[in-house]
Specification:
By secondary structure, this protein is of the alpha/beta class. The protein is 36% helix and 15% strand. A 5-stranded parallel β-sheet has the order 2-1-3-4-5, with helices on both faces. The structure holds flavin mononucleotide (FMN). The site of flavin mononucleotide has 14 residues, from helix 1.
Length: 183
Amino acid sequence: MSQTRIAVIVGSLRKDSFNRKLALAIAHLAPSDFNFEHLRIDDLPLYNQDDDGNQAPAVKRLKSEIAASQGLLFVTPEYNRSLPGVLKNAIDNASRPYGQSAWAGKPAGVIGVSVGAIGTAVAQQHLRNVLAYLDVPTLGQPEAFFQNKEGLFDDKGHIAEGGTKKFLQTWVGKYVAWIKSHA
Ligand SMILES: Cc1cc2nc3c(=O)[nH]c(=O)nc-3n(C[C@H](O)[C@H](O)[C@H](O)COP(=O)(O)O)c2cc1C
């Protein structure tokens, strides 16, 4: 069976990130022919257009990992009603030099968990705006906004059994179909 490689970009660098747990839970619910690879973004330089002709090894690595993938999964918290700077920095780095963006045409899903009641809705909307400009076709429905409440994750860090897990399974099914439809 041929494998579908998904590049996972988590918008939090935090060791115990709930978004990283959510990304792992998604991989757990996906079919076995989907491989999820977490891309490192914490060692990227702050984007500087002066470096476009001589990109850092970490930027080249990020771009080649994206190029080798058939799909993208963005799992991000909301920071001050937008996407975290580390995520935007990764997106900017891999989008340049002009005309050599690594993102173009790669189908994506956007999802996230935050403490606020509207669970990353605004961050996701801002991220969708950026991805639209970068020609990244993004799954529109179902939208998935998770509020991190006691009991969302179990002791092992998995999404607890129940309605939320069922909803996430539905989301993963739609996401997988979305990626396959762009193969
Ligand atoms: C700088 C900063 C800004 C934040 N802004 C928001 C926000 O706008 N909306 C929200 O729901 N939570 C906000 N939070 C709380 C995050 O949702 C919470 O820290 C979350 O656990 C971060 O995700 P992580 O567990 O993957 O690191 C903010 C947290 C930080 C550190």
